[in-house]
Amino acid sequence: MNRPQILTIPNLSEGRDATAIQVMADAARAQGVRWHHLSWDPDHHRAVMAFSGSPAQVKRAILALGEAAVQSIDLRAHQGAHPRIGALDVVPFVPLSGISREEAVQFSLNVARSFARRLRVPVYLYEHSAQAGKPKDLPTLRKGGFEALQAVDLRKERVPDFGRHLHPSAGATVMGVRNPLIAFNVNLDTPDLAIAQTLAKQIRQARDHDPRLTGVRALGLWLPSRQIAQVSLNLTRPDCTDLVTVTNYLREAAAALGAGIRETELIGVILNDSAAAALNASLQSAIHPEQIVG
User: Fold this and answer.
1) Structural domains of the chain, ranges and CATH numbers in brackets
2) What is the pTM for the complete model shown?
3) Which of 12, 113, 124, 215 could cysteine-pair with 47, CB 3.0–4.6 Å?
4) Residue 167 pairs with which residues in a beta bridge?
5) Of 44, 45, 78, 82, which one is the catalytic site residue?
């Protein structure tokens, strides 16, 4: 049997202080995990990293990363384009091999419990780890951002799964097992935010009946450092929807509004199946995941 391996893609609410980001990344990397990705963006004011390892390695890395994030990030002075409720905002776990979804969920509960106790940061469980009767999708859990959580008593409203008091500077964290997804940004060649917002709205309205957009979440954002508008995407059903098809849809829809695509950005990692699907759609070929090595 394969040794258990878990992938995690933590999102942190810091995208401007490169030194702080490297300190946080080093705290996780020091726990022996396999490193895959690190990037940050000043407009989103957000950093994304990806690493994998055994359950024990990943747990140690998340706790170390969380401790560094609490020390480095103060949400009371944080302003960025991306929604957030915490310093270490979201911690998704994706089982890669040697571990079932049920086992991965139990692992996520163990990490969340330890995280809340050790760091005094409350944790909301999401996706497959969510408890019965509680919200499981990230947009609902993050609605209103850190400021909305500041305005309520978490012992009575929006009660976390672990912890009961909002951390004054680090907020709360969302954590849980989810299916693989693709985080993907499409940067437009226009400074008109209204166009990006219109495109994102069109996707949200069409995704339930247009098979090209199954499971696609979209936000229209403004990037002041680049003076352009962006459509920020999460492809939550990459088994149904590939990057090329979604990009082509946006290219056509943007053209109808008088805009074009300047560039695209993959955030985090992409699994072999999704990379093969994108290549197949682009090349009209039959490339299998096993043919992608590295």
Assistant:
1) 5-177 (3.30.990.10), 182-291 (3.30.70.670)
2) 0.91
3) 12
4) 171
5) 82
